[in-house]
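Hello,

Our lab assistant flagged a job as stuck in the queue for most of the afternoon. It eventually completed. Since we weren't sure the result was trustworthy after the delay, we are filing this so someone can double-check. Below is the sequence as submitted and the structure that was eventually returned. Let us know if re-running is recommended.
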Amino acid sequence: MSNFLMIGKSPPGLSSDSLASAHDIGLVQDLPATVAAIKNPSAKIVYDECNHERYLPGDPSKRAFAYFVLTGGRFVYASLIRLLILKFVLSMSASKDVLALASLEVDLSSIEPGTTVTVKWRGKPVFIRHRTEDDIKLANSIDVGSLRDPQEDALRVKKPEWLVVIGVCTHLGCIPLPNAGDFGGWFCPCHGSHYDISGRIRKGPAPYNLEVPTYTFLDENKLLIG
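-- returned structure --
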């Protein structure tokens, strides 16, 4: 028996010098060399360049077109990314409507002493009370230690004649009525909470005083809430 399986032509991808012995790769004489090589791969198989297709350089006109398409695509992608970034940045910027709701300017010149006006800020009512001298004296005559939510009147106002509070009952969120109740301040008709002229809870189920919002005086007759 011959030590080598002789085939008329070398299989594709194999050089004529790379055929291994039948004993080395365990071939049977009646199997084609390609099948035997696949079933019994050998490290002696060597690929040469004869069976690898060579790609010739492309047509210069086609290369120019390809470069044009690739460059144009890059510009399109860059423009899309720029638009997405701008859209993201603009979405994080507060709109004019949001900024308008964030603060509220109020003209105080038309509010007479002893009266209360209600304005809307961030969807909530805000009570602005122009207090008289008697109101101020009454608010400061209270024994703070006897209050449910102890707080000095001076800590709730920036100017003694002006009281600014959020008009939402601290019990269940109802809107109290101004100039009502047993203490001359506000009365919540929902469950009977009474607030004094400083907006402090004096009677009823409400646990806390009326909230004082953030505000500042722009001048003698201008108030900025928020």
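-- support follow-up --
The delay was a queue issue, not a problem with the job. The result is valid. The mean pLDDT is 80. The chain has three domains: 1-54, 58-93, 101-225.
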